[in-house]
Design goal:
Elements: H1 5-15, E1 28-33, E2 38-49, E3 70-75, E4 82-94, E5 97-108, H2 111-114, H3 124-138, H4 142-154
Helix pairs in contact: 3-4
The chain binds zinc ion.
Length: 157
């Protein structure tokens, strides 16, 4: 729970990875295509604001959703596959100018699952242990995730 927008921003900055370096322009981001298996300029197909509420409920004046996540849909220009990232955009003052910083809350599909092709096929239980670790990480169950990654690495799954 957050008291105010500042608390929400601080939480986002502490918790999620910053992905600002991947942004080239408003319309292009350098991202990894798991189909082409390279990093290349993805097109921003859509930038969707989820916080543009026109009605507030119960007559309450609620203006603390100014930092609602934004959904980006990116498309690989070569194979045309797409993925979606849920980002929080935060304006940070540098000198006398605001710069927007981007923090990745989550992605569809999950990027860890996407990279699973890098793992050896045998033994099959390795991928299962890895997948479970990624899911635990997604649920912010980081201690459980660490235990499962360790098991995967040690081969004691
Ligand atoms: Zn591609």
């Amino acid at each position: 729970m957050f008291k105010d927008a500042e608390e929400l921003q601080a939480y986002v900055m502490e918790t999620y990875p910053e992905v600002t370096d991947s942004r080239i322009t408003k319309d292009h981001w350098d991202l990894r295509c798991s189909s082409c298996r390279v990093v290349r300029g993805f097109q921003v197909v859509r930038r969707q604001l989820s916080g543009n509420t026109v009605d507030t409920y119960g007559g309450l004046d609620f203006d603390k959703d100014g930092h609602a996540p934004v959904i980006y849909t990116f498309r690989c220009p070569v194979c045309e596959t797409f993925k979606q990232w849920v980002l929080v955009e935060i304006a940070i003052l540098h000198g006398n100018k605001y710069h927007t910083h981007y923090f990745k809350v989550t992605s569809l599909p999950n990027e860890g699952i996407e990279d699973i092709e890098e793992l050896p096929v045998e033994p099959a239980s390795l991928r299962i242990a890895y997948k479970q670790a990624i899911r635990a990480m997604d649920a912010n169950a980081n201690i459980a995730a660490a235990a499962m990654f360790r098991r995967a690495v040690q081969g004691t799954y």
